[in-house]
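Customer escalation, tier 2.

The customer says the design service returned an amino acid string that "doesn't look like it belongs to this structure." They asked us to rerun it and document both sides in this ticket. The original structure tokens are below, unchanged.
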């Protein structure tokens, strides 16, 4: 992944270097010389710089403004509750979280495509209007999942007045408030899922102590029972259904 960003950065640097060389050398490309202070050249260079910056921040944007945070935290807590930190592997867990994120965010992506991307590609709207239209459904999704207390706390910290409506909430305040709410919800769901596994651990520990088998680690005995319980109740389907259903 990082090598891909480095290649994009190198490509952008090459484009900027070539543009600067063509502007400085009148014999290059057999074209009319373009002054180095031409506003069109400066605007093109800034657009390339902004594009590369957005691409480098794409992973953070994916994590902060989508359902990925809640899903991956819940799945990680389930793995810890079972007592096998290495299974499923991180690659499987993150891959599942990414596909579930795509499933949850599909209506938002569809709305962004219909209302912003396609009109912009057809030339019916400008860039600024396209960005505003694309931001609206994402903000609506985050507002539905964000607690009022988190928004109020961050608005107070930022020194912002109390908003009269959702449109007055700045995006730079909404994003961290959304992330805090997602973490709280994920830990609440994780606590509920920990309880049955904790009960199994307590029962096994009490049974081993009553039999005088104090040298035998309770985890060795309780792990098969936890796996059996998880399989019998179809645990992955229940967890995935609960975490995905919490967004709708």
């Amino acid at each position: 992944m990082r090598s891909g960003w480095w290649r994009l950065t190198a490509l952008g640097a090459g484009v900027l270097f070539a543009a600067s060389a063509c502007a400085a050398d009148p014999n290059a490309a057999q074209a009319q010389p373009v002054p180095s202070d031409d506003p069109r050249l400066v605007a093109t260079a800034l657009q390339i710089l902004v594009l590369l910056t957005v691409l480098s921040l794409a992973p953070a944007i994916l994590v902060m403004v989508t359902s990925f945070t809640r899903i991956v935290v819940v799945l990680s807590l389930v793995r810890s509750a079972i007592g096998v930190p290495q299974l499923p592997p991180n690659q499987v867990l993150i891959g599942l979280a990414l596909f579930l994120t795509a499933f949850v965010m599909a209506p938002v992506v569809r709305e962004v495509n219909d209302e912003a991307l396609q009109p912009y590609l057809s030339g019916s709207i400008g860039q600024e209007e396209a960005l505003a239209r694309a931001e609206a459904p994402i903000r609506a999704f985050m507002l539905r999942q964000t607690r009022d207390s988190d928004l109020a706390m961050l608005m107070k910290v930022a020194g912002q007045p109390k908003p009269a409506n959702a449109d007055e909430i700045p995006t730079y305040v909404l994003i961290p408030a959304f992330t805090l709410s997602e973490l709280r919800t994920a830990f609440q769901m994780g606590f509920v899922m920990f309880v049955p596994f904790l009960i199994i651990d307590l029962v096994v520990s009490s049974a081993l102590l009553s039999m005088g088998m104090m040298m035998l680690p309770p985890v060795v005995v309780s792990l098969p029972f936890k796996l059996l319980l998880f399989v019998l109740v179809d645990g992955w389907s229940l967890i995935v259904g609960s975490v995905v259903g919490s967004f709708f």
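Tier 2 assessment: The sequence is consistent with the input. DSSP finds ten helices and no strands in the chain. The two ends are 31 Å apart (CA to CA). Sent an explanation to the customer and offered a walkthrough call.
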